[in-house]
Amino acid sequence: MAVHAVRLPATQLHGGISGNLSPSSRNPNAAIRFGCGSSKRCRFISVSASLREGDEHGKDNYVRAMEVKKILEDSPLLPKPLSSNQLAETASNGSRVRVAYQGVRGAYSESAAEKAYPNCEPVPCEEFDTAFEAVERWLVDRAVLPIENSLGGSIHRNYDLLLRHNLHIVGEVKLAVRHCLLANHGVSIEDLKRVLSHPQALAQCENTLTRLGLVREAVDDTAGAAKQIAFENLSDAAAVASAEAAKIYGLNILAEDIQDDSDNVTRFLMLAREPIIPGTNRLFKTSIVFSLEEGPGVLFKALAVFSLREINLTKIESRPLRKHPLRASGGLKYFDYLFYVDFEASMADEVAQNALRNLEEFATFLRVLGSYPVDTTML
C-alpha cells in the first residue's frame, strides 16, 4: 500500500445538525492519503530519527529502530489516523466497506469494526468528531464508535455527537474487553515503575495496578499507549492494551486478563448516512432522543407511554441541552435536559409507532436515531 503526503484545508465541525451529502457531490477521482512519504524507507527514517533525537543512548535506540523497521517490513504500514483538518470528499472503491473508528491500529474500536463488518477496511480517526464527519463527507461507508461500557458507563461525547450530526444508527456490536500488560522485550514486571493507557482502562485494572505499585499515566487510547511504549523504547513503563496491539507494535505480553471484572463489555454503535428498513423477523432495538417541558411527573408520563404498551426500556441517559442548559420557572432555574432512550421494539411494530405518537403529543422535541437489530453475540 503506497503512502502519500497531502495538505488539505482545515474544516469546521458543524455546530448544528449536518445534512447528508448527495451522491452527486462525491468525487470519484479523489483518494484518502496518509503519512509521510511513498515508501517503507521513508517511514523507517522518521521513526529512527524520532528515536535518536535527544537521547544519549544512540546505539540502543538504533538497535530498537532496526527492530521497528523489521516490524514495518513484516506487516502493512500503519496508517496515520485522520484528523479533522484532513477531511476531504472521497469515494470508496467499492471493493471493501470502509469503516471509521477512533484511535490507532490495535485499538479495541478497530476490533469492534472488524466484528461488525468482517473483511472491512478499518480507517483510524484521531477524534470521535472526525469519524462522524468522515461518514458524512463520504470518506467512509460506516463508523463504529463506543457508546457505553459495562464498568465505565456511558461515553457522553458520542451521545452529544449523535444529536449534532445527521447520521443513523444501523446496528450495534458488543465486544468483550480483555486488557493485557504490555512492555518491550527484555523488560520484566520488576523493572516497571509506571503504566500508560486510557483513563477508563486504567480504572478497569485498578486492583492489578495497585498491587504492582505502578504510577498511572493517562493517554488518549489504549493502542496509542502501546505504540508509545514501542516507538520510544521505554524500559520502565508498560501499557494496558489489547493482545492485538502487542502483535502490531512488537511488544511482549507480561500479563493477560488484568481487568478487575471479567464481565467487561463495551457496546458500540454502527452509524451510516441512511437508515435501514426495520423488520419484525428478529429482535430489534430503537434509539430515540427527546426533550420535555419542566413540570411534576412529566418524565414519568413520558416513560409511561412505553410501560403501558409493555415495551422494555434497556437504556435511559440524560444530557443537558447544550444551547439552553438552564430554564427559569417560578423564580428558580432548572437544568434543561435531553433524554436518550433505547427500547426493545422495531419501528415496524405498530405498538412502537403508537408509543412515539403518544410521546410526541407532549414532548417538545423528538427524534428517532435508529431502529436496528440487537447484537446477541459476544466474543
Describe the fold and architecture.
It is a single chain. With 379 residues, this protein is of the alpha+beta class. 28% of the residues lie in helices and 27% in strands. The strands form 4 sheets. Strands 1, 2, 3, 4, 5 and 11 form a 6-stranded mixed β-sheet that branches. It has a 5-stranded mixed β-sheet with strand order 8-7-9-6-10. α1 (40-52) packs antiparallel against α2 (58-74). The longest helix is centred in the N-terminal third of the chain and has 17 residues, at 58-74. It is elongated and about 65 Å long. The protein starts with 39 loop residues before the first helix and ends in a 6-residue tail after the last strand.
The end-to-end distance, rounded to whole angstroms, is: 30 Å
Strand content: 25-35%
Order of helices and strands: HHEHEHEEHEEEHHEHEHEEEHEEEEHE
Determine the fraction of residues in helical runs and give it as a percent range: 25-40%
Summarize the structure.
The protein is of the alpha+beta class. The protein is built from 11 helices and 17 strands.
List the helices and strands and how they pair.
Blueprint: H1 40-52, H2 58-74, E1 98-102, H3 108-116, E2 121-125, H4 128-136, E3 142-149, E4 153-154, H5 156-164, E5 168-176, E6 180-183, E7 194-197, H6 199-204, H7 206-212, E8 215-218, H8 222-231, E9 237-241, H9 243-249, E10 252-256, E11 265-272, E12 284-292, H10 298-307, E13 313-320, E14 326-329, E15 332-335, E16 337-343, H11 350-360, E17 363-373
Parallel strand pairs: 1-2, 1-3, 7-8, 7-9
Antiparallel strand pairs: 3-4, 3-11, 5-11, 6-9, 6-10, 12-16, 12-17, 13-16, 14-15
